[in-house]
Write a structure and sequence with these properties.
The complex is a heterodimer of chains A (about 110) and B (about 110).
Chain A lengths: L3 E3 L4 E4 L4 E7 L6 E7 L6 E6 L3 E5 L2 E6 L4 E6 L8 E8 L9 E3 L3 E6 L1
Parallel strand pairs in A: 2-11
Antiparallel strand pairs in A: 1-3, 3-8, 4-5, 4-9, 6-7, 7-8, 9-10, 9-11
Chain B lengths: L3 E4 L2 E4 L5 E7 L5 E8 L3 E10 L2 E4 L6 E7 L2 E6 L8 E8 L9 E2 L3 E5 L1
Parallel strand pairs in B: 2-11
Antiparallel strand pairs in B: 1-3, 3-8, 4-5, 4-9, 5-6, 7-8, 9-10, 9-11
Classes of the chains: A mainly beta (about 110), B mainly beta (about 110).
Chain lengths: ~110, ~110
Amino acid sequence: QKEVEQDPGPLSVPEGAIVSLNCTYSNSAFQYFMWYRQYSRKGPELLMYTYSSGNKEDGRFTAQVDKSSKYISLFIRDSQPSDSATYLCVMSEVRGNTGNQFYFGTGTSLTVIP
Amino acid sequence: DADVTQTPRNRITKTGKRIMLECSQTKGHDRMYWYRQDPGLGLRLIYYSFDVKDINKGEISDGYSVSRQAQAKFSLSLESAIPNQTALYFCATSRSTGFTDTQYFGPGTRLTVL
């Protein structure tokens, strides 16, 4: 079983739709949860991160973590064609100065149709 | 200018050739990483370095070697390239914060081994 599971999609939605991207994980020690966005032929860029269960909002993006279910989500409201990209969930234990090992989902490909 | 740069951006080589991928960063980060990305497999860690004198193997280090020439430079070598090393390679950097760290990725090098 992989540490992090992510539906690869592809996901195609009309402009303005609400998008839900999800990941599950098996390691209960994960405490740091990140979402990266990767445009075609570019490197991943950090979109949001959170340390705790609950919701974190940033503009049209909301990251949700449910540690009891080992489930995280990224919601995109009022989706735009510029949101078309691959979204990666990334997780790690928090180890302080010894450094973290990062566990990556395989990414979900999203296309927002104008 | 980009904070994390990779050269070359694209490379086609033949089986058995030695090839070096280079990464430079201006972020002042102490930690650097090399990943490869394959469709359906996501990002996998090859090597990482927490400072100039520190080199660590990642998940898939066989067939690869690295050199940390300076805090800002981290190169990845394929001593004798083989076709299954065809992939997208990313360099990443992070700064140790004592609690956790977030990675910043370069634009990637697309390597094809014929």
